[in-house]
């Protein structure tokens, strides 16, 4: 059986259509490929859409105790890009609620206006290194990761510390 060739898009339904549209366009630095009062298709790359937002004003708020999607994630090309996104959002008054070193990624988690959780991350390992790490005892002992302070990491990185040192799992959180 064939596996998919890529993950294409996510569709969000919201009673806060305009607010969600504005937030996601800004967060992704994207554009509306098509939009009307009911649905908008957003992209930030060569895909026709990565996120669609559907206007459904009648929806009820979701309980944090409900089953369903936990979060989705976007990978940045470099630590510079991840930290630039962090600083850009922080300047707008939007801070991550959680920053963590997962070992294979360094990540910051945000919530959109509907409370959907979105992870921004940068790979800290090659795919083979990540596979080995996830099969090893460090990951088995803590498969979530180590909380880190992005402010400290940004300062260290901007002062010249290497990306490898900033993303190192063995020294994370210290």
Q: How would you describe the overall organization of this protein?
A:
With 174 residues, the chain is of the alpha+beta class. The chain has 2 domains: 7-58, 2,3-Dihydroxybiphenyl 1,2-Dioxygenase, domain 1 (Roll); 70-174, Signal recognition particle alu RNA binding heterodimer, srp9/1 (2-Layer Sandwich), CATH 3.30.720.110. Helix content is 30%, strand content 26%. It has 6 helices and 9 strands. The chain has helices at 17-28, 79-91, 127-134, 137-141, 150-158, 163-167; strands at 10-14, 31-35, 39-43, 51-55, 72-76, 98-101, 105-111, 117-123, 146-147. The strands form 2 sheets. Strands 5-8-7-6-9 form a 5-stranded mixed sheet. A 4-stranded mixed sheet has the order 1-4-3-2, covered by helices on one side. Strand 3 (39-43) and strand 4 (51-55) form a beta hairpin. The longest helix has 13 residues, at 79-91. The chain is globular.
Question: Characteristics of this structure?
Answer:
single chain; alpha+beta; Signal recognition particle alu RNA binding heterodimer, srp9/1; 5-stranded mixed β-sheet; 6 helices; globular
């Amino acid at each position: 059986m064939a596996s998919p060739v890529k993950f294409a898009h996510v569709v969000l339904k919201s009673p806060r259509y305009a607010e969600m549209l504005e937030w996601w366009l800004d967060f992704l630095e994207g554009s509306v490929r098509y939009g009307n009062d009911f649905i908008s298709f957003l992209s930030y790359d060569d895909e026709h859409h990565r996120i669609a937002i559907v206007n459904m004003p009648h929806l009820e708020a979701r309980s944090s105790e409900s089953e369903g999607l936990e979060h989705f994630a976007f990978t940045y090309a470099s630590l510079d890009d991840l930290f630039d996104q962090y600083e850009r959002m922080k300047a707008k008054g939007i801070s991550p609620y959680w920053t963590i070193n997962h070992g294979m990624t360094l990540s910051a988690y945000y919530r959109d206006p509907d409370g959907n959780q979105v992870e921004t991350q940068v790979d800290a390992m090659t795919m083979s290194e990540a596979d080995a790490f996830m099969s090893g005892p460090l990951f088995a002992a803590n498969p979530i990761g180590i909380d880190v302070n992005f402010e400290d990491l940004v300062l260290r990185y901007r002062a010249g510390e290497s990306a490898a040192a900033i993303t190192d799992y063995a020294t994370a959180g210290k």
